[in-house]
Design goal:
Oligomer: heterodimer
Number of helices of chain B: 1
Radius of gyration of chain A: 14 Å
Structural class of chain A: mainly beta
Structural class of chain B: mainly beta
Largest sheet of chain B: 6 strands, mixed
Order of helices and strands of chain A: EEEEEEEEEEE
Distance between the termini of chain B: 41 Å
Radius of gyration of chain B: 14 Å
Largest interface: A-B, 30 and 24 residues
Strand content of chain B: over 45%
Strand content of chain A: over 45%
């Protein structure tokens, strides 16, 4: 299994809603990532989890809250989002081997989020 | 901070022909890694090819090859014998050579080049 699975594929939510995006991988990877991609733009890193601990937070607003319950799962909790948060949210994973400098990222197909 | 620039918003190629995508980057580091990712309409980012900066030999993966010019900070991608399935957005990306623990495997992406393949 070389897949990163993201659910749901599409999500529409109001600004007062609370929702969660889910990401799962069964490749034994120990590093997982959330990226945000606006239309016709490259992905931007939001969070990095390494060995289930948050190691990088790119100063993302607190209305985005990541959670890594175990090494296979990564959630992104959403609360009180703004319309400008509408984007494609991509999850990725990598082996997390600290000795390998060029390890490959495996991406999911993303969740297309629309905030009304 | 590192920056990655892709100067071609869109490129069109005839099926079976060759197309070259350009990428330049700016960095003060000597140890780093460069990647080309493909994003088809399915939206999944797929690694096409990667190059270690300390290697002089250009990387090749089947019909995909790169021209890595370290002094010029240039990293172009050549797609040979283009196929309809190559139609996608292509992103050039940079990663620092610092240990993963420090850099978090953070990729800096260029703005992307859309490749259209004409049958």
């Amino acid at each position: 299994d070389t897949e990163v699975t993201q659910t749901p594929k599409h999500l529409v939510m109001g600004m007062t809603n609370k929702k969660s995006l889910k990401c799962e991988q069964h490749m034994g990877h120990r590093a997982m990532y959330w990226y945000k991609q606006k239309a016709k733009k490259p992905p931007e890193l939001m969070f990095v989890y390494s060995y289930e601990k948050l190691s990088i937070n790119e100063s993302v607003p607190s209305r985005f809250s990541p959670e890594c319950p175990n090494s296979s799962l990564l959630n992104l909790h959403l609360h009180a989002l703004q319309p400008e948060d509408s984007a494609l949210y991509l999850c990725a994973s990598s082996p997390g081997d600290k000795d390998r400098m060029n390890e490959k990222l495996f991406f999911g197909s993303g969740t297309q989020l629309s905030v009304l | 901070a590192q920056t990655v620039t892709q100067s071609q918003p869109e490129m069109s190629v005839q099926e079976a022909e060759t197309v070259t995508l350009s990428c330049t980057y700016d960095t003060s580091e000597s140890d780093y890694y460069l990647f080309w990712y493909k994003q088809p309409p399915s939206r999944q980012m797929i690694l096409v090819i990667r190059q270690e900066a300390y290697k002089q030999q250009n990387a090749t993966e089947n019909r995909f090859s790169v021209n890595f010019q370290k002094a010029a900070k240039s990293f172009s991608l050549k797609i040979s014998d283009s196929q309809l399935g190559d139609a996608a957005m292509y992103f050039c990306a940079y990663r620092s050579g610092w240990a993963i623990k420090a850099a978090g495997n953070k990729l800096t992406f260029g703005g992307g080049t859309r490749v259209l393949v004409k049958p």
